[in-house]
Please model this.
Amino acid sequence: MPDLLLPATLASVSLAGEHAEAAARDAGWSSDDVDRLVLATTEAVGNAVEHGPGQPIRLRIFGGPAELTVEVEDGGEGPRPDRLDAPSLPRDDATEGRGLFILRALADTARIHGGTLTLTFRPRGEA
Model:
């Protein structure tokens, strides 16, 4: 799939979801796995829109039937790695951290390096 350069607007979230859906369907993934990839991708791009510096967001999805990787870069430093590694859902009154917790739960691996959020997914099949 080609990289997308998206403006830092809410409209980009749905475009990112469409791109993720196409990548997962092209890879032959089940509808449950497609939904998981789309949810994680839209959450990651939504976080970039909300918390990023307002610069264009680069979305890259690559791989194949056995594994897909999603990279989201918004020109900022990205979230702190310790937020991604939080062992539990943030408190009800917390103002940040739920999105990263969701990403970690959906992805097989999640890491931040140099301001790029990288998520990898392997198909799990129908639930």
Q: What stands out?
A: The radius of gyration is 14 Å. The helical segments are 11-26, 31-51, 81-84, 98-106. Residues 1 and 10 are 22 Å apart (CA to CA).
